[in-house]
Amino acid sequence: xxEKAPFTIEQFYKNINQGKLLAGKCVKCGKIHLPPRPVCDxxxxxxxxxxxxxxxxxxxxxxIIHIAPVQFQSMAPYAMGIVRLExxxxxxxxxxxxxxEQVRVxxxxxxxxxxxxxxxxxPQWPRYCFKPL
Amino acid sequence: MNAKPLASIVSAxxxxxxxxxxxxAREIFAEAAKEAFDNCPNLDPKKDIRALxxxxxxxSYEHQGHTGATMADWVGLGNIxxxxxxxxxxxxxxxxxxxxCAVRSGLSDVVMVGGxxxxxxxxxxxxxxxLAMASDFxxxxxxxITFPGLYALMATAHMHDYGTTESQLSMVAVKNHxxxxxxxxxxxxxxxxLETALSSRVVAWPLKLYDCSLITDGxxxxxxxxxxLAKKYTDTPVDIVGSGQASDTIGLYERESLTxxxxxxxxxxxxxxxxxxxxxxINVAEVHDCFTIAEIIxxxxxxxxxxxxxxxxxxxxxxxxxxxxxxxxxxxxxAKGHPVGATGTGQAYEVYLQLTxxxxxxxxxxxxxxxxxxxxxxxxxxTVHIYRRx
Lengths: 133, 390
Known about the structure:
The complex is a heterodimer.
Chain A: H1 9-17, E1 22-26, E2 32-33, E3 48-52, E4 56-65, E5 78-85, E6 90-95, E7 108-112, E8 129-132
Antiparallel strand pairs in A: 1-2, 1-3, 4-5, 4-7, 5-6, 7-8
Chain B: E1 7-14, H1 25-38, H2 45-48, E2 51-55, H3 67-74, E3 81-85, H4 91-105, E4 110-117, H5 124-132, H6 147-162, H7 166-180, H8 194-198, E5 202-205, E6 207-208, E7 218-225, H9 227-233, E8 238-247, H10 262-275, E9 284-286, H11 292-301, H12 310-315, H13 332-335, H14 343-355, E10 369-376, E11 381-389
Parallel strand pairs in B: 2-3, 2-4, 9-10
Antiparallel strand pairs in B: 1-7, 1-8, 4-7, 5-6, 8-11, 10-11
C-alpha cells in the first residue's frame, strides 16, 4: 500500500470490519490516536502511521443499561463499559457473553470484531464488543 | 471579595417548571420574560434591551431551530440582535457567558439572557435519543450508551475508587426533593424517603429512577447590564463577579479521570480567581445535578470538599438548607426539573432570589455570595459563575 488509508473514523470502522483494531500514530510527536484523527491534536501534524492495538484489556468502569435507546431495546438489560487495553489506550464498548452479575471492574476482556451489513443505511459501521477471556 | 463586577443582574424571570400542557417553548419563554419585565418597572424592554442570548438544546423536540429570533419575536423585542447558544445542557450557562461578554465589550449595555426547552410532549424513548445527541456518536451512542449510562460509568468508578455508596447517591435525591417541596415553581414538590429512592427501578445501574433528573418544560431569563447602569433599574442588583467556561473531550472514554470533570474544575478555577474568593466563601450554590452522582462530583470539582469526599458531604447533610453550604435550594435539576436549555439561567434565577432575600421558605440567611455550575453532556462543557449581593 503506497498510499496510506485516511486517518478517519470511517477508516477505523473499515479496519474493524476486517478484524483489525488500528490506531493512528503521529510520526512527529508520537501521540497515538484511538480513534484515529486526520490532524494531531497535540502537534497539528498530518503525518501518521497505522499502529496495531492490543485487543485485550481490563474493564475500567461499567454500567448495566436497563432503559435503552429505541434500537437497543431488545437487548436490554446489557452491560456497557470502558476498557483499558494492554497498552493503556481506552475504548468504550458493550460487554457480551457474560452474566450481568459477573461483570466487575478490573475483569479481563477481549475485543470481538463485528461485521456490518453493507445494505444498512448510514452509518455502515460494524459493532465490536468485548467478551470475557 | 472586592473584585470588580463583570455585569449586574437587575431582574429575572422563571416560568413554572413541569409538564406545561399545550404550551410551546416560545410561549413558556414569554412567561419568564413577563416576570422579569414586570419586576423591573424602570426598564423599557423595547427601548433598552439591545441583545438577546437564548440557550436551547434541540430542534428535534418541536421541529424548531433558529431559536434566537423566535424568542425575540415572542417577547416583543423585534429587531434586536438575537442569538441562540447550544452547549447541550449548558446551553444557557454558555448564553450567560456570551451575555456578560456583550455587556463588558460595551456593544450592548442592556442584554436579556435566558433559555427554554419544551420536552414533555415527546415519548421518553424519543427524549432519551435527543439527549444522547449531546454525547459522542461514533463510539458512545453507537455502542448503546445513554445519558444515564454515561453518568453511571462515572458513578461505578467513584464507588470503586472512593467507596461512595448507592445510599449516598440517593441521599442527594432526598435532599433535593426536600428543597423542591419548598419551591412553588418546582416540578416535584413532594418529599421522598431514602427507601423510595433506593428501591426505585434501575435505569442504568448503579443509577435508579430517583438518581435521574426530570423531563421538563420550562424557561428562564435574566436582565443584565453594566454595574453603573444597574442603579437606574433597581435598588437591589446582583453583581456577577466571576465567570468561567471550559471544554473537554466529547468522548468520556478519552478522559484521564472518570471521577471528576476537568472542564468544571478549570471553569471553577477561572471563576474563583476572577471573583477573588475561595470555595469556603460561597453561601449558596446551584450545581448541575442531572444525576445524583453529578452533584457529588460537583462538590469535589468546586472545592466544597476533597476528591472522594462528596458522598460523605451529602450523607452529613452539609449541603442541605441549614447546612454548611446549601446546594440546590431550588430543588435542582432533580426536583425543580431540567428543561435543558433553560437550566443554566434557571440556576442563576435561584441564586438571584437568594441574594436578594426573595427565596421564601428556602431562603439561606444572610446569603451574600452565590455560585452556579452548569454542565453540558458528560462534561464536555462546563460553566461556573459567581454572584455577589451588590
